[in-house]
Amino acid sequence: MVYSLVFITTLMATILYAFYLWLIPKPIPGIPYNRDSTHRPLGDALDMLREVSITSEFNLWCAKQVDKLNSPICQVFVNPFSKPWVLLADFAESQDIMLRRKEFDRSKFISGGMAPLGHFQSTLPTDDTWREARLWTQDLMTPTFLNNFAGPAAYSSVGELIRLWKTKARLAQGRSFSAATDLNNVSTDTMLQFTFGDHFPHASQREQIDRISSLDPATLSIGDENRAIEFPEAPVDTYITATHEGTDYVEKAVNSWISELTMWWVTKTPRYKRVMATKNRVIREQIEISLRNVRRGAVRTGVDHMVSREIALAEKHGRSPKYGGQKFRDEVFGLTLAGLHTTSAALGWIVKFLAENQDVQSRLRSELRSAYGKAVEERREPKFEELNHPRHPYLEAVVEEALRCHSTTVTREAVTDTELLGHHIPKGTVVFCVSNGPGFYKPALPVNDSKRSPTSKAAAKPKAWDESRDLSAFYPDRWLVQKSSNEKTGETRLEFDGNSGPQLIFGAGPRGCFGRRLAYIEMRILTALTVWNFQFLQTPKELSSHAATDGISHRATQCYVRLEEM
Ligand code: HEM
């Protein structure tokens, strides 16, 4: 009896111990990690959750782990029962895996969160379905489409924002107001124009302009100067709401610890079903319109181009066209989602930095006024064509620096067993390319060059930032270089150099951001035209925090403006 009790107890203890051993994280040999985490079944998860529940900044937590472990490559154990996540804090190697290494592909870290919204290029591995989606969209980032259609659309959306802000600035009487929704709306309208053009009868900003213009100023409470005025918002069309709700679902899933369960739950809600039904209905109607346009040779909008491409592909391969299918509709929706939240988050940082750096703002305004003297003379704003070509170096530098200062982490997944900085990386491991730590916001960590991959060794070493300049500060000049403009006289001029130093805001390589050219156009136009029309005054410190949330993009939690019309 006693023997069997001892036997049962020992067996139970052994089973429990085996279960514990199965649960606790299994580090990848040789890659530094937090030792305490390997004694806890949940590894670093609780630590991460504790901090991220307060800061909402997962990227910041990652950068802190790199600092703690003081290594350009380290690992954390966040997802129970799955492989460690590898944090890579070295620009050259990050760029190498994105640009050159076939052993790494799009990871499911963020794209998995988009899965309930359909299968579009952002969510797909680099397979034939992704290649097909790329073929459909290949005309949309050409200079012809950007200069003749998408760019002017962005210019007109920004024009509406200027109208709205002029009215709001007058009503606000020097007080701050939130810019977050307005910037979301400007990006939404740009993306709607980009995909559907004028075939889609709704926009976000027009409704807001009408609402604010007809507002009785007496209904606004101009309170304490440290608080923001709250303007009412007009309701928008259901498809526009669907695009915003779509991004909200992605944010929810990405920020959830149990993202697969969250996604499953999301898809069961009536709201989700409504969003998807609206999306499918509107896109189906738009494809029908585009089909008619293509047939009469009037290809203008993004969807017109996609339909036209698909007809050509179907003819080439002797098959029926797929523009009536779900994948095609998903791709249209996916493009809008990919370009909306990301761009509006970036615009939010730009306006914050302009207000906080009055010297930069004044220099930009005065450089723009002398570059576009004809516009000043004719008492008008610079036109799209003027802003688009030639580009203004300081304008480009201001935009790029705002992007650098609030970067997001790009990930890749090992699709086969491989190596990174001399360490074995098992297939399925997710690598986070940390772009808000060493090499980006502080001096780079030393790396043994002999451990780099063969492709990294063979490539030219990317430029590092000049560490004598405070890398955590907003300093657009770091993107400018002196170039000879006249060899005979030795005259030089400042030029923008996008490769001045590490930057990974758009990722890189074949899976880098598809829409970056459009995003730059929108950011340059908005920066130039807002600075032309307004002085961004410093907002009170209660409304000026740099806290952010991480999801699809790294978004400021407080995005307020205080405007004085120029
Ligand atoms: C400032 C604005 C933007 C930022 C910061 C941004 C950032 C990114 C990042 C980090 C990625 C992943 C890159 C990688 O994994 O290497 C990405 C992918 C993508 N972006 Fe953007 N993006 C922006 C604007 C846009 C716009 C305007 C569009 C649409 C026209 C767009 C369309 C896409 C698409 C389709 C992908 C997926 C590409 C693929 O998976 O092959 N993005 N973007």
UniProtKB/TrEMBL annotation:
Pfam families: p450. Keywords: Heme, Iron, Membrane, Metal-binding, Monooxygenase, Oxidoreductase, Transmembrane, Transmembrane helix. Its cofactor is heme. Heme binds at C513. GO terms for molecular function: heme binding; iron ion binding; monooxygenase activity; oxidoreductase activity, acting on paired donors, with incorporation or reduction of molecular oxygen. The chain crosses the membrane at residues 6-25. It comes from the Eukaryota. Belongs to the cytochrome P450 family. This is Cytochrome p450 monooxygenase.
